[in-house]
Here is the input.
Amino acid sequence: MSSTHPGSEQVHLVCGGKYHDFDFARLELLGLLAEIPQVRTSVAGDWSDIDSLSSASVLISYTSDLVPGENEQDQLEGFLRRGGSWFALHGTNSLLQYTRGVGWEAPHQATRFFEMLGSQFVAHPPIQPYTVRPSCQHPLVEGIEPFTADDELYLCRFFGEHTCLLETDFSGETPGFAESDWADNDKVPVMYLHPWETNEVLYLNLGHARGHWDMQPLMDYYDTEERGSWKRPEFYELLRRGIQWALNRTTRAAGFEQ
Here is the structure.
């Protein structure tokens, strides 16, 4: 765990799981955090580093098919109850199982975790460009013009209330997933704030990244290197704003002036 000194902010980054290029995402996120001199960051590949989370005021997660166990969910609840800020990215809300003849399913498990996060991934259509646009007036998306994301478009089940910040449109099918018929779907949240007890969680589902060796053991070599929204300057701006949102919330909670 990184050392802490007066005036610093301790951030804990959880980055790991399946079928994504976590080395790439980890380096990009650490580069953004390094732009803020007072930030000190601990890094873990899963949810087991409870000590680092207990010492942190900010949690950033970029995971896929990786959910905390019961004890780790207890620690996450405690982190949120004491005012910690959680900025969750992309596949953080995913838990998958594959059934032959059915496809990829999002099981109704780890419900407490997804209730804290506000959503659970269910399916996505094949990767293709789609338009992302602000859906309300909020400092996190102020001045962000509609842009094209060539990314995984997450279709989810939701828990509790949300303030939708970014949205897109989708209606159609998601081949390969158990819940594949989304013909009656309409607007899809892409970024939201989710209130949880006296706290709130920020989630942004953009950010797919996959390299040639990231689909093992399903396949030895994946032909296409995918970088999703990491190719878009708007995405980096949203990441910077999300990080600053998290830092500002902890500063206000501690009674410091901005």
